[in-house]
Amino acid sequence: TGLDALIKSKGKKYVGFATDQGYFSSSDTVNILKAEGGSVTAENSMKWDATEPSRGGFNWNGADALANFATQNGKQIRGHTLLWHAQLPQWVKNINDKATLTTVIQNHAAAVAGRYKGKVYAWDVANEVVGDGGGMRSDSIFTTVFRDWTFLDVAFRAAKAADPGAKLCLNDYNIDFSGAKLNTFVQVVKDLKSRGVPIDCVGTQTHTGIGSNNIANFGNVLNTLASTGTEVQITELDIAAPSTSITSAQLTQQRADYKSVVSACMRTSACTGITLWGVSDRATWITGRRPLLWDENFAKKPAYQGFVDGINS
Ligand code: G3I
């Protein structure tokens, strides 16, 4: 029983949840993680600010807790994330030469991916590198120092050396709909492959909204992502209400939207797994907008049935 068992019975690899140590004191949350999920993603604990707050000074407290939870409960791990312009410590942002930044990326990836070698199904090696307009993101130290995409080559090669068995992904948001950003994202992945850089998967975060027009076209988007020749994963799914009040009509629409998104994955052979960005509406980064499958009191919402219907579609 549970979503993970159901999706596996249909040939997919996992349903997962973002979580972290802070949630483990909630027995309701833990029970759902155990019964419904086959994978966990570290919501915050494997990010650079958490793992390497000072150069060469590592803190494994939260990341180890997440990894131990996964090991003890037989869950896969999605590593999130080795390189991101946000939640990046100031000491990294202060680097202004390419040689130093290259070494720093290599050491970070070696340490973090190396520590969990053999335990991680997939790493988000890099997160959110494409700008919303379809160019290089302008507010990233990696872009401004390198001035080209080759910081990705450095990160992916270092991750490969550290954990050769992990699938290595490029992850981004606002690629769950067609447009310049999706086009650039796909081109970046194809270019990495043509340079011989090891990349195995792409992640579409898929933070979307109830009734969004993007959802109807999501199957086409997954096909576009699959055209990179890599595995496609839905990595941070949530479907938020437009405001903190939610109507019963919106809860019904949310059910339909979850069904549509999940069924698009089921129809796409390259789409291997789906991670929800949290368990219950009680604890989500989109405070109050009820984006998840369980409500504030851990009761299943109509959205849960939508997810099931999507798997069965
Ligand atoms: O840990 C500190 C704590 O010590 C401090 O007292 C508290 C006061 O604000 O802040 C805590 O840090 C917070 C951290 O989550 C851990 O709880 C940060 O303020 C808060 O900004 C941070 O938010 C996270 C956000 O990423 C940061 O960008 C969210 O939990 C997390 O869900 C969110 O996840 C991102 C993905 O990594 C990438 N894609 C988008 C997604 C949603 O924004």
Reconstruct the topology from this structure.
Elements: H1 3-9, E1 14-19, H2 27-36, E2 39-42, H3 48-51, H4 61-73, E3 76-84, H5 90-93, H6 98-115, E4 122-127, H7 141-146, H8 150-162, E5 167-172, H9 180-194, E6 201-204, E7 207-209, H10 218-226, E8 231-240, H11 248-267, E9 271-276, H12 302-312
Parallel strand pairs: 1-2, 1-9, 2-3, 3-4, 4-5, 5-6, 6-8, 7-8, 8-9
Bound molecules: ligand G3I.
Ligand G3I binds next to loops.
Short description:
This protein has 313 residues and is α/β, with parallel strands linked by helices. Helices cover 42% and strands 17% of the residues.
Whole-number mean pLDDT:
98
CATH architecture: Alpha-Beta Barrel
The CATH topology, please? Answer: TIM Barrel
Q: What is the H/E string?
A: HEHEHHEHHEHHEHEEHEHEH
The CATH homologous superfamily corresponds to: Glycosidases
**Would you report the number of β strands?**
9
The CATH class turns out to be: Alpha Beta
Helix/strand class:
alpha/beta
Q: Which ligands are bound?
A: ligand G3I
Subcellular location: Secreted
Pathway: Glycan degradation; xylan degradation
GO molecular function: cellulose binding; endo-1,4-beta-xylanase activity
Keywords: Carbohydrate metabolism, Glycosidase, Hydrolase, Polysaccharide degradation, Secreted, Signal, Xylan degradation
